[in-house]
Each structure stands twice: as C-alpha cells, then as structure tokens.
Amino acid sequence: MVTLDQVAKACLTLPGVEEVDRRGQRTWKLGEKTFAWERTFSKADIRRYGDAPIPSDPIVAVRVADEAEKAAVLAQGRSGFFTIPHFDGFSAVLIELGRAKAAEVRESLIDGWLVYADEAAARKVLGQRKP
User: Fold this and answer.
1) By the 8 A CB rule, do 126 and 107 touch?
2) Measured between alpha carbons, how far is 58 from 105 in angstroms, rounded to an integer?
3) Which residues contact residue 11 at a Cβ distance below 8 angstroms, ignoring those fewer than 6 apart?
4) What is the SS3 assignment for 35?
5) How far apart are CA 36 and CA 41, in angstroms?
6) Which among 121, 92, 112 has a CA at the least distance from the CA of 16?
7) Per-residue pLDDT averaged across 78-95, rounded?
8) Would you call 117 exposed, middle or buried from its count of C-beta atoms within 10 A (0-12, 13-18, 19+)?
9) Residue 102, CB half-sphere, CA atoms under 13 Å: how many?
C-alpha cells in the first residue's frame, strides 16, 4: 500500500516542489501551480456512488496534461486509477493509494509535475528516470 507520506516524499524530491495545507488536505505545488493533492470525497461525491462501495483508502488527485492524456491513463486499467463525475472535463486522475502500485503512483506524480515544470528541470528529472 502506498501512503500519503510516500506520496509527499516522492513529490518533494522533484525540483521546486513545496507541500502546503489546503483546507486541511496535503497539496503539492510547483510555484503557484498545484499538480497533486489529497482528495477526500464530498457528500455529493458519496451520493453519486449510490450503492457502490466508496474507496476507503487515501486518494490523491494528480494533474495530467489534457483530457486525451487522462483518457489514455484511465484506459490502461491500472489498479486504483479512476475518475468521478466531479472531474469530468478536468485534466486530473484520482488514485486510490491502497490499490495502486508504488511505481505507477510515482510515475504519475512525475508526469503531473511535468505539466508545469520548465524544460531544464524536466530534462534533469527525465534523465534520472529508469526505463
């Protein structure tokens, strides 16, 4: 199981990232841009689930470049990766940490960071990535 502390550690290894508290939830930013954040479900989110089981593990939302990338990520069928109606038209995916693989979470966090990273920092991080 991936924990929020592991998410924080992965985010904070990326250049220029800071962790802030936004309404009681951990949020990771590059400059003024948020690329990952802890996501709890609102009452409306829970109502939309109806009788379906609501994820019980911590969830993070991670920015993706655009709707096409979001569709591609979700189409891969990775365990723990999903979306909800509230995120329709929004370039981010949700990850239930207890179901996701650590390597896939880390890769998604890097990809989210890359949405806002400058070219030099991106090259440095991508050069460190193992195939």
Assistant:
1) no
2) 13
3) 17, 19, 28, 36, 109, 113
4) strand
5) 15
6) 121
7) 94
8) buried
9) 9
| Rounded Cα distance, 54 and 52, in Å | 6
* Rounded distance between C-alpha atoms, residue 129 and residue 125, angstroms: 7
Distance CA 3, CA 93 (A): 17
Rounded distance between C-alpha atoms, residue 94 and residue 11, angstroms: 16
- Full-model pTM: 0.90
Q: Give the phi and the psi of residue 115 in degrees, each rounded to 5.
A: -55, -35
Cα(12)–Cα(7) distance, integer angstroms: 9
CA distance 95 to 124: 26
Where b means 16+ CB within 10 Å and e means fewer, 91-112 reads bbbbbbbebbeeebbbbbbbbb
DSSP-assigned beta bridge partners for residue 26: 21
Average of per-residue pLDDT values in the chain: 92
